[in-house]
Specification:
Alpha-Beta Plaits; binds adenosine-3',5'-cyclic-monophosphate; NDK-like_dom
Length: 143
């Protein structure tokens, strides 16, 4: 089954949004297969955001994601990478539609509450950066 990496960013954790965000993905029918509250190191942040290394806001991104605890998650389900992105809404909360996570809770570009992998390949890379194999669970099949 497809997996994606989602992370409630420091602004979302500080604003007590973890429960509300997890609830949306559970209600949709996706399965949580890994989760942890953690502080991201500078090193991990730089690896996570490596595709943005040449952008002018790269160090801003690193400083923000390391500024407080994040809630890192792995979710499983059919087409979960694309569906989770749709549920998150556009990157800039000001452009994100009402009903999406960023549309409902986001404030500004940098403080956009949640990160989600943008492709199946990115998901595999990001899950590998944040989780060890043994930290992910398997559910028994309901039939
Ligand atoms: P995220 O999904 O974590 O992935 C990269 C992040 O870069 C994105 O969310 C935004 O928070 C941030 N970002 C994208 N574009 C800009 C920008 N023009 N200025 C500042 N931050 C940005």
């Amino acid at each position: 089954m497809e997996k994606t990496f989602l992370m409630v960013k420091p602004d979302g954790v500080q604003r007590n949004l973890i429960g509300k965000i997890v609830e949306r993905f559970e209600s949709k029918g996706f399965q949580l297969v890994g989760a942890k509250l953690m502080v991201v190191s500078q090193d991990l942040a730089k690896q996570h955001y490596q595709e943005h290394v040449d952008k002018p806001f790269f160090m801003e991104l690193v400083d923000f994601i390391t500024s407080g605890p994040v809630f890192a998650m792995v979710w499983s389900g059919e087409d979960v990478v694309t569906k989770a992105r749709a549920m998150m809404g556009k990157t800039n909360p000001l452009d994100a539609a009402p009903g999406t996570i960023r549309g409902d809770f986001g404030v500004v570009m940098r403080k956009n509450v949640i990160h989600g992998s943008d492709s199946v390949d990115s998901a595999a890379r990001e899950i590998g950066l944040f989780f060890k194999e043994e930290e992910l669970v398997e559910y028994n099949k309901l039939s």
